[in-house]
Amino acid sequence: MSIEKVFESKRFHLWAGLLIAISSLIVYSNTFHASFHFDDTPQIVENYSIRNLSNWFDIVRGQRGIAMLTFAINYAIGGLNVAGYHIVNLAIHITNGILVYFLIFLTLGTIDLGTDFKSDKAKKIAVFTALLFAVHPIQTQAVTYIVQRMEALASMFMLIGILFFVKGIKASNTSARILLYGAVAVSYLLGFYSKEMAITLPALIFLYDYCFIAGNDIKKLAPRLPLYVVLLIMLAFLAAPTFTGLKETPGESVGFGVQSITPKEYLFTQFNVLIYYITLLFVPINQNLDYDFPISKGLFEIPAVKDGTILNFPIPPAFISLMIILSIVGVAIYLFTRHAQRITQHGRLIAFFILWFFIILSPTSSFIPIIDVIFEHRLYLASVGFFALFSLALDRFFEYLEQRKDKVGVKV
User: Fold this and answer.
1) CB count, 10 Å around CB of 281?
2) What percent of the chain has pLDDT over 90?
3) Cβ proximity of 286 and 313 under 8 Å
4) What is the 3-state secondary structure (H, E, C) of the chain?
5) For residue 249, is pLDDT > 70?
6) What pLDDT sits at residue 245?
């Protein structure tokens, strides 16, 4: 059977899911006996509140209660045997890989982005993006650091929420649409109570709507206004604790009460952190569970690097990283304009995935201090934007080579 026949197969979605699952299993097959580390101890090993499932309601009501409930279920089944925790983490990761596949496929294959994106091409780009997401080394921490199931679980509910939104748009009757939009709101709650990074879901849905449904026409967002009102009310309710003072979360301190770093220093440091994240996606070397990342005291100062710190490149003044970030975001904004259509007819697609990356990282890469300035697991869902853009660029490159080959053949 030819490659083209495989992509045309009615069972391709099944084969794609199996490929993502098997690839993930192979990559992480040697991690099932990795021990508890760092925050695993207070949150799981020494957390007696999760040792009795009859306490499930109190567990769910707590911060990150949905994720903590899954740890309680793990404990009820296998105690502190790490294998069970790793199996669940990997199952969530595989699920996310499959959800990424469907998100990319639906975006490329069922939304009008031009004749270039036929179903077979959409499948190719979707499965390659999902495979990159599933096996890239940057995901190691989110999958194997047991407590960071929180990150993967929140990401899963965010992906589900976006997919419910897409399905709601296409629903043929009002009742089905309301039900699906209600599922978006429930996914938002489940995501946030898995980990707070899910607070960005309304922004992602709005951006998706604006780019692909409304087609850059803000007036066409009006039919979804009730959903956005509900999501904004939920956003205000969920965000309030962060902006009213210090917020203690499992394994970290968040908010303006953090004493080890000022909001200004944290913001300046995050400019360099964001660039460091991008370089890790391109070249995942010298990865670290506990970085000693240099703090930027001023916008134009070169941050001091402590002896023994291993980094992939010399950390520049925050101003340089800020200019790079502004240039990338500026490109995304430009791609929304009509002039950009002269460069590419898929400008909104590229802009969406650029902004996806920065929106998801915004809660941890803003001016609100967190005691740890950098963690690789924060890249988990944000990386989908990078992988999608990489897959699109690679597809365009091979298409260019094919066109050159055809031209050479004609000349001969």
Assistant:
1) 19
2) 77
3) no
4) CCHHHHHHCCCHHHHHHHHHHHHHHHHCCCCCCCCCCCCHHHHHHCCHHHCCHHHHHHHHHCCCHHHHHHHHHHHHHHCCCHHHHHHHHHHHHHHHHHHHHHHHHHHHHCCCCCCCCCHHHHHHHHHHHHHHHHHCHHHHHHHHCHHHHHHHHHHHHHHHHHHHHHHHHHCCCHHHHHHHHHHHHHHHHHHHCCCHHHHHHHHHHHHHHHHHHCCCCHHHHHHHHHHHHHHHHHHHHHHHHHHCCCEEECCEEECCCCCCCCHHHHHHHHHHHHHHHHHHHHCCCCCCCCCCCCCCCCCCCCCCCCCCCCCCCCCCCHHHHHHHHHHHHHHHHHCCCCHHHHCCCCHHHHHHHHHHHHHHHCCCCCCCCECCCCCHHHHCCCHHHHHHHHHHHHHHHHHHHHHHHHHHHHHC
5) no
6) 46
Q: Which residue would you say has higher pLDDT here, 257 or 94? A: 94
Residue scoring higher pLDDT (401 or 393) = 393
pLDDT at 92 over 50: yes
Question: Biggest alpha carbon distance in the chain?
Answer: 77
Would the pLDDT of 251 be above 60? no
247-249/252-254 β-pairing: antiparallel
What is the Cα–Cα distance from 361 to 309, expressed in whole angstroms?
A: 24
pLDDT tens-digit readout, 157-166: 999 999 999 9
Count other Cβ atoms within 10 Å, centred on residue 189: 17
Place of tokens 């089944």: 77
- Give this prediction's pTM: 0.93
Q: Distance (Å, rounded) from C-alpha 287 to C-alpha 338?
A: 41
| pLDDT > 90? residue 195 | yes
Q: Please, what is the angle between helix 201-208 and helix 149-170, to 10°?
A: 30
Report the distance separating Cα 278 and Cα 81, nearest Å: 35
130-149 residue pLDDT tens: 999 999 999 999 999 999 99
